[in-house]
Design goal:
It is built from 16 helices and 14 strands. By secondary structure, the protein is α/β, with parallel strands linked by helices. Strands 7-9-8-13-14-12-10-11 form an eight-stranded mixed sheet, with helices on both faces. Strands 1-2-4-3 form a four-stranded mixed sheet. The chain has a two-stranded antiparallel ribbon with strand order 5-6. The longest helix has 19 residues. The chain is globular, with a radius of gyration of 21 Å. The relative contact order is 0.13. The N terminus is likely disordered.
Length: about 475
């Protein structure tokens, strides 16, 4: 793990000891809401909280490889400023909370790797999402690893090595936001930013036992300004966060998003809903028996909560073509922007080559197919309020399971349930549904009608209360 721009690696320490009743591990896993309450109550300081996070990073990240860079000095300065603001009665929603940022997002003074070996320039200013986090009082602790150009549903590269799953170090934490997923699951930070062009928020959530909401397209800024990045990967990409609880996700998205009031919305009940479910994806393939067991457990709980639950047969016509064309062209666009495109893996350049050979007419057709799918699937199958699917069809795969030029074909077997909702743009949320017999997380996905993130979080919150997944923690070595 690098220290950003040669900054000193001194570990921040609080000026007083933690209250004896405060166990550092419990603080680390308290989540955004829990940590915020401890800070407001004066049970610990922002500097102490930062110290807990950095201590855990120093202890565990050598094995996990979740972080790209740490901003120790600036984080300490920001935590000290947060303590002064807390003492003055400042009540900003993230004041003093350490947050990590995926390393494809601009952080002032840092050169984001984009997961590659290209020597990218130092960012002159924060991206809009980082600015909003800082304005809300967050302490930006560092950046997290991703595969090259956020391409894959795993987080491994020739340059930076594999990022490992805290639940089992021989398994992937998913991708492309795998560094963020591993960091949150291991209690290194309470939350981290993520992005999703074909499942890259939801897949790490599924692999790491987290909550991951891909909000409606355009809700959270991707680039330097609020409007920048809306057409990244030709409209597939969405920014968001990974957290351990539904309420933490709502708090973060209220800060990051435009026109959201999710924290207030999820306090109400959803009423009786029409719930449709399916194990049909956009591409054929089997669903692991333990993933199906988790899906069935969630459906049973939804019935117990009083909802009408019905199996359906979704139509994904045109979705696969639309996704693959836009994905390949988007990768090509990102590759040519690098300072040194050759400092990437052959499989990355192979996908970009596909995109460079895609004529504009084919891209226009892909966009049209996406619009048609969005109009059709805005009405969920069975005229449902929520559609329930697997997030990924198997538990987290072994590190190195996908390699070489076959990676694209193999990766397609992971994304048949996630990629369609990047094409349509509507919200989709991954939440834990149980554990495999050997202790790996499995997950389900809730898909909503356009703009209905609040309803998804309401349903997810009821399931969280019933299944109590935040109580589960990985046993770290």
């Amino acid at each position: 793990m690098a220290e950003d721009d040669g900054r000193a690696a001194t570990r921040p320490r609080g000026g007083r000891r933690l209250t004896p009743a405060l166990d550092p591990t419990e603080v680390a896993f308290a989540g955004v809401v829990g940590q915020r309450q401890l800070l407001r109550d004066g049970a610990l300081s922002a500097v102490e909280l930062l110290g807990i996070c950095l201590d855990r990073i120093d202890r565990y990240d050598g094995a996990l490889n979740a972080f790209q860079v740490l901003f120790r000095d600036r984080a300490r300065s920001d935590a000290e400023a947060a303590d002064a603001a807390l003492a003055a009665g400042d009540d900003r929603p993230l004041l003093g909370i350490p947050i990590a940022v995926k390393d494809n997002v601009a952080v002032e003074g840092h050169a984001p790797s984009m997961g590659t070996g290209s020597p990218e320039p130092v960012a002159p200013r924060d991206a809009e999402q980082v600015r909003r986090l800082r304005d809300a009082g967050a302490v930006i602790i560092g950046t997290t690893r991703l595969p090259e150009l956020a391409l894959w549903p795993f987080t491994e590269s020739e340059t930076w090595g594999p990022t490992r799953n805290p639940w089992s170090p021989d398994r992937t934490p998913g991708g492309s936001s795998g560094g963020s997923g591993a960091a949150v699951a291991a209690g290194l930070v309470a939350a981290a930013t993520a992005s999703d062009g074909g499942g890259s928020i939801r897949i790490p959530a599924a692999c790491c036992g987290l909550v991951g909401l891909k909000a409606q397209r355009g809700r959270v800024p991707l680039g330097a300004t609020a409007d920048d990045g809306l057409q990244h990967w030709h409209g597939l990409s969405v920014a968001g966060v990974l957290t351990r609880t539904v309420r933490d996700t709502a708090v973060l998205l209220d800060v990051l998003g435009d026109g959201l009031a999710l924290t207030k919305a999820i306090t109400g009940g959803s009423g009786q809903l029409r719930i449709s479910w399916s194990v049909k994806g956009a591409a054929p393939g089997p669903v692991d028996a333990q993933v199906r067991r988790g899906l069935d457990a969630v459906l049973t709980e939804l019935q117990r909560l009083g909802h009408d639950v019905t199996e359906v047969d979704p139509s994904y016509s045109g979705v696969g073509e639309s996704f693959l064309t836009r994905y390949a062209r988007g990768v090509r666009d990102d590759l040519v922007r690098l300072v040194d495109p050759s400092a990437t893996e052959p499989r990355t350049r192979a996908v970009a080559a596909m995109g460079s050979k895609t004529p504009d007419a084919l891209l226009a057709r892909a966009l049209r197919l996406g619009e048609e799918a969005a109009a059709r699937l805005a009405v969920l199958p069975g005229n449902a309020d929520v559609l329930v699917l697997p997030t990924i069809p198997q538990p987290p795969q072994q590190i190195g399971a996908m390699s070489g030029l076959r990676t694209l074909a193999l990766a397609g077997r992971v994304t048949p349930y996630t990629a369609p909702w990047n094409v349509t743009g509507q919200p989709a949320l991954s939440l834990p549904s149980g554990m495999t017999d050997d202790g790996l997380p499995v997950a389900v996905q809730l898909v909503g009608r356009p703009g209905e993130e609040a309803l998804l979080l309401q349903v997810a919150g009821a399931l969280e209360a019933a299944l109590d997944w935040p109580a589960r923690r990985p046993q770290l070595g």
